[in-house]
Amino acid sequence: MKVTCSTRLRLSSAMLAALCLTQAARAQAPETDGETSWTASTIIVTGERGHYATPTSSSATRTDTPLIQVPQSVQVITSALLQEQDRRTLGEALVNVSGVTPTRSEENLFIPPILRGFPAEVYVDGLPIFAGNQQAYDPTSLVGVDRIDVLKGPIATLYGGGLGTPLGGIINVVTERPSDKAQAYVALRAGSFSTWNPYGDVSVPLASGIAARLAGEYQSNASWIDRIKGRRWSIQPSLSFQIDADTDLLLQAQFNHRSNLEYSGLPADAALADMLDRNAFPGSPIGQPRTKNDNSMATATLRHAVSDTVKLTVTGRYYDSKVDESGSFVFPGLAPTGTTSPIYDVFPITMINRTKEATFDANLGAKIDLLGGTHELLVGVNYDWTSFYSGMGLFVSDSPSGTIDLSDPEYDLSYTPQTPVNSYTDDRFETFAFYVQDQASYGRLHLTGGLRVTALKFIENSNFGVANDKRYTHVSPRAGATFDVAPGIALFAGYATAFRAPFGFIGMDTPRPETSSNVEGGLKLALPKAGLSGTIAAFRQTHDNVVTADPANVGFYIQSGRQRARGIEVDLVWEPSPAFSLLANYAYSDTRDDGVAPGDRLARVPRNSGRVAARYRLLDGPAKGLSFGAGITAFTARELTLPNSIAVPGYAVIDAQAAYDVGRFSLGLSVVNLGGRRAWDPHSYMGYPVVSPNQPRSAFVTLKAHM
């Protein structure tokens, strides 16, 4: 017999499938003749639920595995959460995960997000985007994103790219596939700071087994920071082919553009002493071109079921990026002109970056019964070729462009392009890797083990024209286990490592590969009847051969030794009914440096941080279709420098949202920093301690129409 599902409201295919499976499980009858009998039933859905939790993820193991069986802390940001909280950038979304320090979109290039105190990398659909580009840290658009998987700690067994494997963890942005049913929406978002943001997503079947999707958006906006204006757009076409019952092919592309007047931050000491105009632009805006970031990528994914238990997945991508950077900044003491706060010298900088990356991954998965248990084996190979050129033109004498009074700025300085470049990095990387993984289950015990062998070669690399050809071979193990204490409750423990060649290292010594290792354990919850899911974890992570700024030589680096982080993280989602969702996270992060500043805390990482956010939806009555939510995010103080010399005080901000759905239309309102809290965020530019003003109270309205 079969299960039929009908719905009175529009539901996503994933949501409908989950409802069908739940009802089918409840209707399961005793087995007869070795087959399961199913009772036909009809599900009537009276409200559309915004899910903040998901039971499975393929990012952590490259197999569809229940999160409760993954011996690692993994958090998933669903599309429903992104939409209901009106998250438009990756940094905005990541506040919903504990232990993350996101990258702000206006920050300088090469500033990665931080997971558990260490640099993380952003992947798209399981493949890397070279870590030397801002796009990798702050994707241009979240339109067309199905979910964001955050894998905490090194996970070198399955992932790697042109420089090795991610040291601090992976933020995997998973995009939506074309649908075999026609669906579309268009939306317009507008609000504070002259924000104008149309976007949309269309998916249509073209023929039997063939479907196309097109997602895209455009945004223009000003800023609470003087003189800053930005523009960005993204176009994301995709095409899927169901070749036969066992084989499908997905072709995807992205074309992205971002441009804005580059912001270099305010001197931290004077800003925190309230000596400066908090919204001042610290540079020479007259004639300063916008920094432009243009990139494109094409991805192909082939999946083939060799049999019911053996599956092949082959994925390849080509990525091309051009960044033309024009900046101006203040750096007290860089030129001895005798200025004192709040009057500063202004220096110009020009940088061009060119990146090309080709990456390929193929793996074969098989499910077998062996040694008294069930095993899911995965064997794969990975290849990555990356070309990266960066040319920088910095002021060529001790004479700055002029001075600016940041307590009362006049903005009368003209920008002078610094060309030709007077320093450059020209790198080629080639990586070969082989990996193997086994997921074994013995009743309530689930074991995961893996190994990756990586061979990394620097090809014709040079910094300042000095050759830096190197070869590295590294073995990265991973091991872990989960134990089902009770249905929906499991204990877990895991160990993993990673290694990475220093990127853009300019120093007096030959660079050594950076390595990291992570040990963690804790409790996982997956209780659908109670609507409760999440992870409570304790961890200890170390990072060796750390690259830090050379305090004796501006613009140069040294490898300082070891850093470590340890702490406790809590990520919980409670959804007791379709009407209510509650998300809560908390992180205690104890970080220490054992190199240039023994005992000091790592920069930009708060000791305590957390967030609580709730959403309530009216599913019946005259106000049916109305929903509203609010959240509060808090940080304690964050250090700006290593060695520690100055810290940014902690703060808390409130956000709020409301929406009203009527038929095919919805109207949404979101407010950032509802209480108007004035605070500072740590920033990084040219190695000097600077801060940025947090976003003031801002409001945005969105009108969306489903086709």
From TrEMBL:
A GO cellular component annotation in the UniProt record: cell outer membrane
Record's signal peptide: 1-29
Stretches assigned to the TonB-dependent receptor-like beta-barrel domain: 253-674
Principal subcellular localization: membrane
CDD domains according to UniProt: ligand_gated_channel (cd01347)
Cellular location(s): Cell outer membrane
Entry keyword set: Cell outer membrane, Ion transport, Iron, Iron transport, Membrane, Receptor, Signal, TonB box, Transmembrane, Transmembrane beta strand, Transport
One GO MF term attached to the UniProt entry: signaling receptor activity
Annotated coiled-coil segments of the chain: none
Family matches, as InterPro entries: Beta-barrel_TonB, Beta-barrel_TonB_sf, Plug_dom, Plug_dom_sf, TonB-dep_rcpt-like, TonB_sidphr_rcpt
Protein topology in the membrane: Multi-pass membrane protein
Ranges of residues in domain TonB-dependent receptor plug: 67-162
Top-level division of the source organism's lineage: Bacteria
GO BP terms: siderophore transport
Family, similarity comment: Belongs to the TonB-dependent receptor family.
Name this polypeptide is given: Iron complex outermembrane recepter protein
Organism per entry: Sphingobium xenophagum
Phylogenetic lineage: Bacteria, Pseudomonadati, Pseudomonadota, Alphaproteobacteria, Sphingomonadales
